[in-house]
Amino acid sequence: MPSPDEIKQRIEASIPGAQAEVEDYTGGGDHFRATVTAAAFEGRSRIQQHRLIYDVFGTEIGGAIHALSLKTQTPQKTPTP
Amino acid sequence: MSSSKPSAIRDLPMSSNQTSPVGEAPTAGGENPIRDAISEAISEHKVILFMKGTPEAPACGFSARTVAALQALDVPFAAVDILPDPRIRQELSAISDWPTIPQLFANGEFLGGCDIVTEMYESGELAGALL
After folding, report:
1. Measured between CB atoms, which of A46, A62, A71 is closest to B112?
2. Which of A41, A50, A53, A73 is the best residue to mutate to test the B interface, defined by the most B CB atoms within 10 Å of its own CB?
3. pLDDT recorded at residue B12
4. Structural domains for chain A
5. Residues A50/A70, Cβ–Cβ less than 8 Å
6. ipTM above 0.90, yes or no
7. Which chain B residue has its CA at the smallest distance from A49's CA?
8. Which of A60, B2, B40, B68 is the most buried (most CB within 10 A)?
9. How far apart are CA B48 and CA B41, in angstroms?
């Protein structure tokens, strides 16, 4: 069963420059919520942004990862120092 | 006058608070009647939600939240319960290239799942997208 940290690392490894915050919001190890900030999202629709993340996990979504709730943003909206 | 609906459409577990005509039947003996029925349902309903359970009795929190957003806007929508037959979800995801349920379509286009619909509702975009 994936841990929030594993999900975070896989998102960050697959999407260049991405920063992810992942929490297990039921404590059951299969419902996760991720907020992902990435420059790669620029110019893409929200649907395309979410697809980029879903693609990291393929068939695990709906399987081992029962739910992965997503919030995506580009770095401009949350400037980092 | 024809009283026969395409069998695949009839087999989709659909509930609707809109009346809508049933269009052309998919070709009899088609390769993929479930996919055809889903595509047809998407094109025939201005707003259609594929969900777990029904609007009256959602079987998943994400589906419930999406129904609540639509109901808050007082938008009529058709709903298809994907749970009775796993092939519905499989074919739906193949059409939309989206792995999760619920999935909302308006005017024939995929709008998003629970997260996106909720974000659009909160930002005020959803009502416009459903026109």
Report:
1. A46
2. A50
3. 80
4. 4-77 (3.30.300.90)
5. yes
6. no
7. B116
8. B40
9. 8
From the number of C-beta atoms within 10 Å of its C-beta (0-12, 13-18, 19+), residue B31 rates as exposed
| Range of weakest confidence among A20-29, A44-53, B47-56 | A20-29
B8-17+34-129: CATH number: 3.40.30.10
Divide the 131 residues of chain B into consecutive groups of 10 and give the mean pLDDT of each group: 44 64 48 94 98 97 97 97 96 96 98 97 97 92
Query: Residue B94 is inside which H or E element, if any?
Result: helix B86-96
Say which of B62, B112, B114 has its CB closest to residue A47. B112
pTM over 0.90: no
Q: What is the DSSP string of B13-66?
A: -EEESS-----PPPPTT-S-HHHHHHHHHHHH-SEEEEESB-SSSBSSHHHHHH
B61-72 vs B114-123: helix axis angle to the nearest 10? Answer: 30
